[in-house]
Amino acid sequence: MMGFFEHQYLSYKKNHIKNLLALAKSDGHMHPKEEALLYRIGTRYGLKSRQVKLLIDSEEKYVFNIPDNHNDRMNLLYDLILMVYADEVIDPHEVEFCEEAVRQFGMKKELVSWLIKEFDRGTPPPPDEWEEMKEEAKQNFMRQ
Description:
Blueprint: H1 4-24, H2 32-44, H3 49-57, H4 70-86, H5 92-104, H6 110-119, H7 127-140
Helix pairs in contact: 1-2, 1-3, 1-4, 2-3, 2-4, 4-5, 5-6
């Protein structure tokens, strides 16, 4: 039997994947590379392939879930930007989705274009650089 906190953490992980799914489907279809990325991120979060598959196959209309704190919001945004790049096409619907997400986070939409430029350098930022970027985002892109 699963305890309360284990259930909460599982819900958090599933909500993270659901947010990514909402983005992946925002342009009307999900590319195989986007699906593969969902499985990789699910694995990183400790979800089993069958759990990710159930989420992917669900006909549920996902409501965007806003994480509770800046760190979790930025980590979600990191994965959202990875998803934008997954099919090697930066779709305007996906960019708008990310801009709406950061607006809901209480941040300026310019954060999305800044992150896209950073990711355009070739690879996603490594963990130590990402920690610095999260702090920079907090300093420069919070709405007053």
